[in-house]
Amino acid sequence: MQIVAVTGRSGSGKSTVAAYYASLGYPVLDADLVAREVVLPGSGCLAQLCDAFGPGILAPDGTLNRAALAARAFETPEQTRRLTQITHPAIIKTLLDGAAEAEKTGKPFVFVDGAVIVGEAFEPYCDRIIVVVTTEREALSRVILRDGISKQAARARMAAQKSDEDLRAAADYIIENTGDRRHLCAAAGRILEQLLSSAASGDSGDGIK
Question: Residue 77 CA to chain centroid, in angstroms?
Answer without folding.
Answer: 18
